[in-house]
């Protein structure tokens, strides 16, 4: 059994890690830390866990690090800036780290410090950290000590664009025009488990709005992901705008692309199906079938549909996922499975909940 | 024009007062106070008011009382305990007071201090305050200086029981068994406009629960209301349990009553229709028609249905209202209309919003 | 492996059966029938099943019965009146039957025919059918050929009252007054998967109402369940009113009971905990903890809280379940586990989904 | 008083017309027709109208036309294809017609017949019909006999783009690149009042999806609107994709535009404010303030925010409206006000409902 710790398990990604890891056949959650809730059973805060897990939040103070160092893997479900302070000591003790916050996502120090408004405390380790998208970095993940678990929006954007960028690389011809519009929509759980007037039921329900309009931290992460996929000379200008949907879970990213003449000649349905044929969690929907977010609710699946309008020169890619699973905790476990040489789908096979 | 002030207009009852009074043909909102938002236009906090009202929150400090004393009526949309500190000075200056909090609802000092955990600062004034249910206290309201605007649940409970109690009084015979069960359900806006984890969208949506299980402040208010209606020797034991419904506005009270043999002989549909025949805002639905909360959304109407099952000896009374209108701001304005000798429906005739 | 068939799998209980049975380690779904959808893959109708199950709806016409007779168990997720037409032939072939509709719930023919407005086609078989509440009929279920899977409301009502009735029996003293008020609330999925104006999103959302006011089919089922528990001379008058909550899944039953003097002396928290100490799916919450429906979402758990107010002589029992799982498909599988001598929790251990 | 008729008032735009016209000081609803509901009071179908309107649905058969011809104005809240069959007879009798369906929106016969799959029955009248966007066609509307009330999406798209197109015209320089992406989101009431599995609460709630992916009828209407605004040589390629949001009312259109060098030099906030300075219902939000749909709920206001990112060469226009008011019934009444020379805001001044 893999001995796992969760640091900061009082948020939605924390409880989702507990839910999923409790059913994982090769993992035992041996430590769950929280300063604010030390001494409290997790199922007191989340009664849904009654009968599922009897783990207790602990705050070991100075001894926390010692205890974490005895685990095989530590998941950080903490605010940005926490994991990077402990990652070095953990990796030196041979413990693998999966950070669900942003400390190890952006590989440019300048970008990190610009968007997260704090210096990075372990730039050397950052260099060796792997961006945790198994569908792209599976091989690197197998040897990774530190994994930066992707943001929810970047997961949809990068996986939605990957087959296009790769085909463009392969054909060495521009298939899509430079400007890419990603109009994204997320359920409210993406904003985290917090007391906030803006997230109050009566403020959020029967309402729709955009946010992060002046710039969202996931934009540089998407840009980095696309940049890394590009092996050719073609540049792209990514435009990204997130919106808040009155629903609990779910993310829908609409990617508007303009095809070049060469791009119009491609059978994109075929290209996507081929690209993801071997992926357990990526479901390219049949031509003419379009996704809705509930079709992945509570599961690690991400579904993609492509709609190609040759007459208008348009390609539309629609991507759905559960922001708390493939967009956070599920992907973290998928990364862990790869890091420990397990079957990548272990503990992640549960069906979506519909209705 | 009646010069009105609203003290503490940043909550949901506050914005509802602004919305309704802005359309009232005989009222001008001349003062709107808030400590936290002084200097801010109301429509910055509530963009829905853009183009409706250009009033600015003010905090006049020591001069606030002077300014309030120049108005004709002051609405307190504040936490419990605020109105009672200013009511005396206001009434002495001839200003009428409508308190939307609980300071002037319970006429028993002991009850007030038990349930609200604070001493009452003007017990003399409390004696002359009128409980603001126009359908019961219309005559007293005409001369009232201070009105305690009822709680939302008590409004539904008392008006749902009034025809029964009155008929029992009139017939001087017990028509219903002593125990009355009021199983009530409210939308989330009833909990106020506040940052609260329990009210977070992702905590509240697709969820249903009871609350106030160990005792809710509206119970003594309901008991007082029923007590005051009883002119006969019959006592009742009221049982009250509120629940939280994942909807913004709306309140539904289900009142379960057991009929005596004499009670089974009554035509309750007829009794209710007769009782409320002259009331502009009380709508007794035709036999066999049952209410839903949306049928009163954003309006001052309260609808009642009665279902009588002679075989089982059961009477069920179902009452719906918009908790922010007839349950709060609308009723406050209805009270004001009575207090100033205006047509009681002035400013309150807008149709419910469906869908 | 147990070979299972699902007749009529296009509704919400049908897709829930597919979801749960697909993850059951001892069951294989070998047949899925539907007239309207014959030839269609289940995952075309329910894209959430893509990658989970590749089963195809079939309509074998005259050969359907032959095919069903080759299975070990047949689940009927059909309208009322379908299972009873096939149950005899199936049981004669040694096939076990679990009917999720009402054909085998009410053991009184008169009651069945009164409430469901059709004659019963196999009254003999009805006599031997077992009411599928494992927490009550576990022993009978072990040998049952035909199981009537309980209605969702009766599951909450009967399990919420069982410890009380049983203690009353044991003490041979009336502990609660005869009249029992069950004020119940259900999410919309309980109304089934159908095109209906009343269930349209814009009609149902931000709205709350009662229904079945003139009499609901679950009332005689609750009465039968309580009757069967009563071994003493005490009678009860059950009153039941369901309401529709704007949420997808979840059921909350509030049971209002009046305690006798003897009943006031009982420690009901203790009584409930003792009663359900051995039950895997019944969770009696600690004193002072109250349930919400989401704490059981998508799981087979049913949670109960009891609140006792000795001063007022009141006992309140609050019961939550997921209407599609413990209230339907999950309970059907729990019954099947018992019928086949399997561990009762097999395939039913998944954690609730929160948020 | 203007004598008005509503043909087909059983849908959401119908009840919204009744609600709004009942409060209009210069209009009397004298006729309300429906085949399916003839003889039924409107407030039986919509109990929210109890006490607001006592009008009865009628089906006059052959005499319907006679009765309509006695009115001053007829609103058609019918499916596409109904108004065009009666419009000629009505206008010949001097009755003004406002069609809330699509019969008089598209001025190209080919476009109409392609997108609505039926021949147009009065192409001559179509030529003289006015597209009912008062902010664009106010002068023509003053003399119009037949008005095609715009689709909900086109209202947001055309009004969101108007200041840009007009400034481009004026400066005679391309300010935005040709391709315009309109990513639009609508509440469920936009799909109408109908029994439909896809609109069932349990299918729609906690879910998000795109629709009309292969082509939506509002696209040619948007293209026509933009085409008519363009006086210059510049062409645009409009891309439009609608999405369904789990909310009752509200529409949010996100318009993604790429600025040319000349376009980057424009102060777009200023340009929008200037363009709409005189419009009662168009609210250009201050710089840095962004809209949400609830800020216009149940009102005729449409709010616009512009966000300009000079560095990236991006302009984002966000437009919100209530799809049933400014997107349908409210706009129809605004058109009627103009057609009859009334104050354009008459009957349309009610504040939005928040929360």
UniProtKB/TrEMBL annotation, chains A, B, C, D:
<dbReference type="GO" id="GO:0005840">
    <property type="term" value="C:ribosome"/>
</dbReference>
<dbReference type="InterPro" id="IPR058924">
    <property type="entry name" value="AGPR_dimerisation_dom"/>
</dbReference>
<dbReference type="Pfam" id="PF01118">
    <property type="entry name" value="Semialdhyde_dh"/>
</dbReference>
<comment type="similarity">
    <text>Belongs to the NAGSA dehydrogenase family. Type 1 subfamily.</text>
</comment>
<dbReference type="InterPro" id="IPR000534">
    <property type="entry name" value="Semialdehyde_DH_NAD-bd"/>
</dbReference>
<keyword id="KW-0687">Ribonucleoprotein</keyword>
<keyword id="KW-0028">Amino-acid biosynthesis</keyword>
<dbReference type="Pfam" id="PF22698">
    <property type="entry name" value="Semialdhyde_dhC_1"/>
</dbReference>
<comment type="function">
    <text>Catalyzes the NADPH-dependent reduction of N-acetyl-5-glutamyl phosphate to yield N-acetyl-L-glutamate 5-semialdehyde.</text>
</comment>
<protein>
    <recommendedName>
        <fullName>N-acetyl-gamma-glutamyl-phosphate reductase</fullName>
        <ecNumber>1.2.1.38</ecNumber>
    </recommendedName>
</protein>
<feature type="active site">
    <location>
        <position position="152"/>
    </location>
</feature>
<dbReference type="InterPro" id="IPR000706">
    <property type="entry name" value="AGPR_type-1"/>
</dbReference>
<keyword id="KW-0689">Ribosomal protein</keyword>
<keyword id="KW-0055">Arginine biosynthesis</keyword>
<keyword id="KW-0560">Oxidoreductase</keyword>
<dbReference type="InterPro" id="IPR050085">
    <property type="entry name" value="AGPR"/>
</dbReference>
<keyword id="KW-0963">Cytoplasm</keyword>
<dbReference type="InterPro" id="IPR023013">
    <property type="entry name" value="AGPR_AS"/>
</dbReference>
<keyword id="KW-0521">NADP</keyword>
<feature type="domain" description="Semialdehyde dehydrogenase NAD-binding">
    <location>
        <begin position="3"/>
        <end position="144"/>
    </location>
</feature>
<dbReference type="GO" id="GO:0003942">
    <property type="term" value="F:N-acetyl-gamma-glutamyl-phosphate reductase activity"/>
</dbReference>
<dbReference type="InterPro" id="IPR036291">
    <property type="entry name" value="NAD(P)-bd_dom_sf"/>
</dbReference>
<comment type="pathway">
    <text>Amino-acid biosynthesis; L-arginine biosynthesis; N(2)-acetyl-L-ornithine from L-glutamate: step 3/4.</text>
</comment>
């Amino acid at each position: 059994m893999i001995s796992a710790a969760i640091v900061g398990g009082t948020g939605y990604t924390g409880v989702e890690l507990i839910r999923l890891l409790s059913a994982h056949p090769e993992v035992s959650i041996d430590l769950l830390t929280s300063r604010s809730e030390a001494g409290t059973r997790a199922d007191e805060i989340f009664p849904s866990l009654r009968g599922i897990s009897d783990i207790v939040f602990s705050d070991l103070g100075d001894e926390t690090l010692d205890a974490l160092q005895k685990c095989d893997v530590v998941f950080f479900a903490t605010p940005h800036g926490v994991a990077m302070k402990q990652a070095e000591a953990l990796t030196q003790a041979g413990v693998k780290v999966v950070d669900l916050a942003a400390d190890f996502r952006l590989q440019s120090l300048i970008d990190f410090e610009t968007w997260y408004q704090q210096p990075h405390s372990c730039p050397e380790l950052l260099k060796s950290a792997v961006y945790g998208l198994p569908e792209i970095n599976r091989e690197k993940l197998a040897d990774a000590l530190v994994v930066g678990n992707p943001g929810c929006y970047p997961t949809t954007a990068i996986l939605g664009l990957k087959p296009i960028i790769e085909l463009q690389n392969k054909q060495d011809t521009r298939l899509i025009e430079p400007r890419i519009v990603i109009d994204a929509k997320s359920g409210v759980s993406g904003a985290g488990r917090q007391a906030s007037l803006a997230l109050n039921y009566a403020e959020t329900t029967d309402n729709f709005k955009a946010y992060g309009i002046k710039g969202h931290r996931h934009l540089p992460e998407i840009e980095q992901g696309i940049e890394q996929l590009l092996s050719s000379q073609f540049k792209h200008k990514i435009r990204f705008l997130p919106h808040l949907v009155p629903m609990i879970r779910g993310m829908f990213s609409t990617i508007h692309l303009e095809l070049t003449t060469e791009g119009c000649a491609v059978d994109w349905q075929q290209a996507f199906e081929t690209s993801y044929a071997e992926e357990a969690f990526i479901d390219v929907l049949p031509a003419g079938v379009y996704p809705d977010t509930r079709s992945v609710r509570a599961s690690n699946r991400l579904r993609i549909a492509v709609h190609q309008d040759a007459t208008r020169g348009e390609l539309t890619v629609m991507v759905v996922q559960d922001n708390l699973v493939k967009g956070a905790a599920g992907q973290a476990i998928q990364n862990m499975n790869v890091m420990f040489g397990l079957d990548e789908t272990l503990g992640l096979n549960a069906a979506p909940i519909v209705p």
